[in-house]
Recover the amino acids of this structure.
């Protein structure tokens, strides 16, 4: 079955510290991979995406993610977090066929310690 | 910029009412989606559509229906609202597989 797992429900990091949010997926083949961010009371915004090529992808707001096929993982990273990064982060996958649906993980809530 | 607009930010409806949630996108996107978001469950797909008048069931279609008469508009219908349909509803659209989806602001529906 297709699924996305984000094992961390809530993470707290200090401002200026590095961040890594984990994402593992189960899919028949390598799907399109995405990370989204949701600020309180808002819709989701696309941070970055991967579908082929270089396995390290850069996104907006200083985020990056690394695709590791052998581990079926697509972890999100940021070298130094800012208080404005406090939000909920969702990993998602989408297949290649025209009628594929986007499947989301359950999300990781990020809190920033001053 | 792509804009996905949901007609209401907050709605309060009574049990048994018929509820319409409207979503409009302004970028000629083929694909449109309706999700509901509940704490600890992430986003669950209710229905999606990849063309006008086409619809596909998502993971939790029970109690819902959809309508897509025009490319830019995708409506979610709760035929007879129930309290377990109290949730945040998110509409999204996308042009193609690798572009990612654009989301509306969400509609927080409370059924009393």
């Amino acid at each position: 079955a297709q699924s996305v797992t984000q094992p961390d429900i809530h993470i707290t990091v200090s401002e200026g510290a590095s961040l890594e949010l984990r994402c593992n997926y189960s899919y028949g083949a390598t799907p399109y991979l995405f990370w989204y961010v949701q600020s309180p009371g808002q819709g989701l915004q696309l941070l970055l995406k991967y579908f082929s090529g270089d396995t390290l992808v850069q996104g907006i707001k200083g985020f990056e993610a690394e695709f590791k096929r052998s581990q079926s993982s697509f972890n999100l990273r940021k070298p130094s977090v800012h208080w404005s990064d406090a939000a909920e982060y969702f990993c998602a996958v989408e297949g290649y066929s025209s009628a594929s649906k986007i499947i989301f993980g359950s999300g990781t809530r990020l809190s920033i310690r001053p | 910029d792509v804009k996905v607009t949901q007609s209401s930010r907050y709605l309060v409806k009574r049990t048994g009412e018929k509820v319409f949630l409207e979503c409009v996108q302004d970028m000629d996107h083929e694909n449109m989606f309706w999700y509901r978001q509940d704490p600890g469950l992430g986003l669950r797909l209710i229905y999606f559509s990849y063309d006008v008048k086409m619809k596909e069931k998502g993971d939790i279609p029970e109690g819902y229906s959809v309508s897509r008469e025009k490319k830019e508009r995708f409506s979610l219908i709760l035929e007879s609202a129930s309290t377990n349909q109290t949730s945040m509803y998110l509409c999204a659209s996308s042009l193609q597989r690798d572009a990612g989806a654009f989301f509306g602001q969400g509609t927080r529906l409370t059924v009393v």
